[in-house]
Amino acid sequence: MSDDPICPLCGRPIPPGVPQSLHHLIPKLKGGKGGPTVLLHDICHREIHASLTEAELAREFNTVAALRQHPRLAKFFAWVAKRPPSFRSRVPGKRRPR
């Protein structure tokens, strides 16, 4: 059994050397500086910010459970969960249409 942290969104381990980042559950721009954070795969973190605005994150999607319920994100997390922990893919730079 590995002691690697687990991404709370896709459920895959986050071994050392795999791109990872801390997500502020309430965006820093919306008062979340110093607030709760969660360690995520970088690909999962980028998908959140490609899908939702800072206002949406602060207002409606400020918990792991809420992020997992978002229809588009849920579909992405289910898809990426089947990939190896080191899987990387480019997330387009601009926000995707909702």
UniProtKB/TrEMBL annotation:
Q: Which domain of life is it from?
A: Bacteria
* UniProt name for this protein: HNH endonuclease
